Amino acid sequence: MKKVILLTILAFSMLHLNAQITGQVFDDGGERLPFVNVLILSAVDSSLVSATLTDEAGHFLFEQAPEQDYLLSVQTLAYRDWYSTTTRGNQSFGDIQLEAAAYELDVLEVTARKKLIQQSGEGTIVNVQSSLLTKGSSALQLLERLPGVYIDRRNNDLSLNGQSGATIMLDGRTLRLPLSELISLLEGMSANEIENIELLTSPSAKYDAEGSSGMINIVRKEQKDNGTNGSYTLSGAWGAKPKASGSVQLYHQDQKKHFSASYAYLYDASIYDWRATGFNNIPALIGAYDIDYLHEGKQRKQSHNLSMTYGQQLSENTTIGGDLHYSRIMDRPDRLNTGNYFFHSQDSFFQMKMHQLVDNRWDNLVASIFLDQQLHKGGQLSVAADYLYHYNESPSLSSSSFHNLKGERLTLNDEIFATSLKGVNQTSIRVGAFKVDYEKSWSSKIKLQLGFKGSYAKNENQGGLERKVYDHWEVDPRASTSLEGYELITAAYTSTQWKMSDAIDLTLGLRYEYWQRELGAEQGNRQQNQFFPSVHFSQQLTDDQFLRFSYSRRTNRPSYNDLASYISYNGPVSVMTGNPLLQPTISNKLRLNYQLKGVNMALQYQRDKHPIQRYQLTANDTEDLLLVSPQNLDFEQIISFQLDWSTDPTPWWQSQLGLIGSHRSYRLLHTLEKAEKRYVAFNMYGNQQFQLPLDLSLEISGWYNSGFYEGSRKVDGFGMLNAGIRKSLKKGRGSLQLAVENLLQSMRITSYFGRVTPEVFEIFTKVYYRPESARARIFRLTYSRPFGNRKMTGRRKKQSASDEERSRLRTGG
Length: 813
Prior knowledge:
The protein is mostly beta strands. It contains six helices and 52 strands. The strands form six sheets. The chain has a 31-stranded antiparallel sheet that branches. Strands 8, 9, 13, 14, 15, 16 and 52 form a seven-stranded mixed sheet that branches.
């Protein structure tokens, strides 16, 4: 009987010990370290799971090991933080030795890194600082490497998961700029100060309803712990042309206030070209002809970016603050166009050579102030006001010459073939927004959120084109614009979060928005009254399994440039213009998501009414001018499947793989014949990171888009492979890394008109586009060094959203 009792006690003791995490902490001299912080962190997102202190002999003990992958961290002042590799279950870490750092606290290094890609109930979170390719890049280059994001640099367009209409946000604030201006803004923004990017394909009701394909939220870094720290980065690159960048970030925080400031400079000289070949039949050019058109461009972009943030705790319950981001971007394109025209009716030929110089300048200011107030009985009120100012000026000068088949110069001084052109374009956009958010937990299971938002935007554009006919300049009436527009948006939302059980969460949201845009009597006005419901359901099946379902209705409203019937020179008989008849898009989306450990699967159905497709071909009323403008499709329907797989094959190898496949169908209305198109497309992406000896890290990442369609335009598949290697220098001296962009020089985009259905003027052309990296690989060498305490986190969420963000990371990120 005693043996049975003894064996029973031993068995229970072994079970108890099997769930423990133990160890002992020493300094580098062998002395035990008492009262040291020992933390268990989630291996998924580095969030805190549990914590304890060592005893007087330096021992620590966790009675219960988490049932998930975790990291163990030991932290205390005067010593470098210590991190384990990814671990699971019970573990004895034995003796842990900390390295003294009392004389260089300003260079402590954190070795734990978040997973590059995490999943949430609203979409995908990409922790861009976990990538070696981030430093030295621009924000636009960063976006180009994200899963499902495609940026068309030639046409200044952006799509998410194969759809245009994504809304760009900076720290949760919508940047209400035309897409071409947004791309310029992101191209001048340094990626060094960005913590993560959220690809929100199923946003909740608290977000703006704008963005039929979703929202892209760029979240900048912020100080986490008290103290002063920062970093600086220097980068040089070379491809066909030189590039350089430099940035410095400074952060300070104490018990009452926090402050951050950063400055970045980017210089990018680059080249690109595109070639169009095919057949046109435009009466203004004497009927049918074959064309071979080559565009060669050189660019020299410079940008200055300044950001500042300040927050002050006035009392235990009241915090105020604000932030400011200013950028100036200068770009001086030098373009050479050579067009060869072979006319069928007269069996004749002429060549046009046009040299164009442009002097672009953008000024951008984004400012915000906020107040957060903790109210009686657990309520919280947040009030914020935002202001955005954007100004662009782009004068141009073009000179042309015309030649026959023998190379002899022709004199064609008329309104179509002018030898000299002067263009001017000035655009200013001012946006003011005010929002109030309130939330209250009525019980441990129910939380209510309410909010109101109003924004007002004023847009002004002055543009014109003068042609030199013989010896004098004449204003081209077709290319002269003076526009002034206004946009008003008011919105209110409510969202109820119900914790139905320990494993089940349900969020019901409803948002109402009123939108009005005025462009004057001749341009036409637009307005929209719409309710946007949303549902988010989440169930934790086991510790490693999650099931999520969401429904949301969203919209994509035409921008100021989309609606305004301005005229921008695109060629002798071709102009770019807006479309005052555009209608907003209404999108309904269903998404089912299942996650098991590092594998995430999602099935999605989306149907859009009147989706907007840019850069489509139509004719003017007199049918002698080709118009390149945005057009509404009748509908678009998408059924897609997404698979993401994150795994650590070895302690020194992290792997991320992903696939997005979709079946798409849509109907064209603006073409000569109405046409419906169905096709299958996919996007593949992957990232492999290796920890090598000698403090070296290696990263290889790439993506591939299969062929797809943009309205009446067909685009062939294309992709890119990038690589980077980093050397961490000892004693806090920073890191040195070398990155290679477009390693296989495969980033070449071929598109076609006339392949889906007959186009206006019988256009049947092929366009072949090459960015600089397709002609010369771009090598980027970057040195980065931190100072102070390097613990960073994502920027604080305004609108009281921080609790929800942390919760969703813990439950599935």
